[in-house]
Write a structure and sequence with these properties.
This protein is of the alpha/beta class and about 260 residues long. The protein contains eight helices and ten strands. The protein has a single domain, classed as NAD(P)-binding Rossmann-like Domain (Rossmann fold, 3-Layer(aba) Sandwich). An eight-stranded mixed β-sheet has the order 3-2-1-4-5-6-10-8, sandwiched between helices. Strands 7-9 form a two-stranded parallel sheet. Helix 2 packs across helix 7 and helix 4 runs parallel beside helix 6. It is globular, with a radius of gyration of 21 Å. The termini are far apart. It binds NADP nicotinamide-adenine-dinucleotide phosphate. The site of NADP nicotinamide-adenine-dinucleotide phosphate has 30 residues, from helix 2, helix 4 and strand 7.
């Protein structure tokens, strides 16, 4: 082979290497744009951050709320869906054309028609069953770090924990491609300020975590198939490198 032809071939090889990652990145962004994600609890303090994180990644977001107006107020970029998890018949239309469900719903009252049992347990059960009926395979549940924990305070029916534990079990047994993200006490500083400590159940971590970090973990889980079948219990830990958790998702043990 002559020297000029060798030089041309080498130059072509270099160009091919430079172009290849760009083409790949382009393709993965396009794939995400075609994905429509239903966020249940989109109007909540965590839900809003999940919506923002999904939009930043190029997903199409369907925002679910009991009020279409509240869902629409999240911005022009979202599809509002009015549905109430205490009325399972309202959920099927919200599921149409959806590729995954992220649930961040929560009852704000211990008891009553929209309390912990009705929303955190029965509401999530209705969402999981509706996703299954609609053929939506992927489901990511925002639970609570102390769900299923032993001890008087954690097992009281007026506490959210026993109800969240029931929702977790129902999801694990559903046959869906699930991930459970179970944070400690929630607070509201920006994402990435502190490291995130991830542990498996039944290691119950005591601590707090920023809602924005939880949103990042939920969206990263959605984009990483290796998180299927895993439960992450998580708190912030300022001794850890802020983004180190991202590389731990893949090797984290399954349930
Ligand atoms: N607070 C903590 O320290 C802590 C710790 C760990 C885990 N968690 C859990 O994390 C999750 C998110 O908490 P958050 O404080 O960010 O939530 P939040 O601000 O209280 O938002 C709750 C969301 O649930 C939706 N919702 C309530 N009832 C509903 C119903 N019947 N049908 C449909 N949607 C309903 C609300 O939507 P609409 O009102 O618009 O319908 C709202 O978007 C909750 O499950 C919470 O229990 C909390």
């Amino acid at each position: 082979m002559s020297a000029p032809i060798r030089i041309i071939l080498r130059a072509l090889a270099v160009i091919a290497i430079m172009v290849a990652p760009t083409a790949h990145a382009q393709q993965s962004v396009e794939t995400q744009v075609t994905k429509r994600i239903l966020v249940a609890g989109a109007t909540g303090q965590s839900g809003k951050l999940i919506v923002t994180a999904l939009l930043e990644k190029g997903f199409t977001v369907r925002a679910m709320s009991r009020s279409a107006e509240r869902a629409a107020s999240l911005g022009d970029g979202v599809e509002p869906a009015e549905a109430d998890v205490t009325d399972p018949s309202s959920l099927s239309s919200a599921m149409i054309g959806v590729d995954a469900v992220l649930s961040a719903i929560g009852g704000r009252r211990p008891i009553g028609s929209n309390g912990f049992e009705a929303v955190d347990w029965e509401g999530n059960r209705a969402l999981i069953d509706a996703a299954k009926a609609a053929g939506v395979r992927r489901f990511i549940l925002m639970s609570g770090g102390s769900a299923g924990r032993d001890g008087f305070l954690y097992t009281l029916p007026i506490a959210p924990y026993p109800w969240k534990a029931k929702a977790e079990s129902h999801l694990r047994e559903s046959g869906l491609d699930y991930t459970i993200v179970a944070p400690g006490g929630l607070r509201d500083e920006p994402a990435g300020r502190y490291g995130v400590r991830l542990t498996t159940r039944p290691n119950y971590l005591v601590g707090q975590i920023n809602r924005a970090d939880v949103a990042e973990v939920m969206v990263a889980s959605l984009m990483d198939g290796s998180t299927i079948g895993k439960t992450f219990t998580l708190i912030n830990d300022d001794t850890l490198v802020p983004d180190a958790w991202r590389t731990e998702l893949a090797t984290f043990p399954a349930d």
